[in-house]
Amino acid sequence: MLAQKLAVVTGAARGLGLSVARDLAAAGCVVLMVGRNAEAIEAAARQLRESGHQALPHVADVTDASAVAALAARLRREFGRVDILVNNAGVFPEKKDFTALETASVFVVDPEMVAATHASNALAPLRLIQAIVPLMRENAWGRIVNVSSSMGQLAEMGGFWPGYRMSKAALNALTRLTAAELKDSPIKVNSVCPGWCRTEMGGKDATRSADEGAMGIVWAALLPDDGPSGGFFQDGKPIDW
Ligand SMILES: NC(=O)c1ccc[n+]([C@@H]2O[C@H](COP(=O)([O-])OP(=O)(O)OC[C@H]3O[C@@H](n4cnc5c(N)ncnc54)[C@H](OP(=O)(O)O)[C@@H]3O)[C@@H](O)[C@H]2O)c1
Fold this sequence. Notes:
The chain has helices at residues 15-26, 38-50, 65-79, 111-139, 162-181, 210-221, and strands at residues 6-10, 30-35, 55-59, 84-87, 142-147, 187-192, 232-234, 237-238. The protein is α/β, with parallel strands linked by helices.
């Protein structure tokens, strides 16, 4: 059913993005793997191709407007379509040291760091959605997954790590906005929290593997036509905003 769908996965060189790219390729998609480090993204795509998957690298820093425009131009030129967009690339620049929480307090955080985190985690997905939804509209099908975090949940908002928390809350707002404006279209947009995963960002003490975390993201990327849009999910189940 999903043969030859074109999926774009950002931040696909390692961690959750690499697992998501592998799972989507295994489901029959051609996957364009986006990363800002040429050597790393080329090696990751090669690794998938050596396992028999259809995966291609694309070098782009998703915070760079001209790089996102070049990505959209390549997608139109080479494939003429995009079926799935996984906005996975993200950063968490604050210290995660639980023994020194005061260094990650809202009262000392550098607002410039908060702005830079927004640029990666919320504004880059906005730019990618603007660049890619026109291609989805042309083919009258689309799935967008914004990889968010329970740390962005307003319902559960605690203190500390304001850069990361605010950026993921903004990403969730982007999901709601986009889904509302696409409500009469066949394009579905959802936020997904992968849980706490053992990646470079999550660290070695995290409770889940990247492959386990990727499953809920892939679920949202492959939703059937009667699936939800405009929701926040973990493991395929709705969670609070
Ligand atoms: N791990 C967790 O526990 C967890 C929990 C909840 C949500 N998440 C979310 O899941 C997503 C993936 O996280 P992860 O744990 O897999 O992190 P990760 O191992 O640090 O991987 C993040 C990837 O994103 C790429 N990236 C960052 N900024 C980019 C940019 N401007 N342009 C292109 N690529 C960029 C990184 O590339 P470089 O190598 O060039 O930096 C890296 O490949 C993130 O959005 C994160 O917030 C993770």
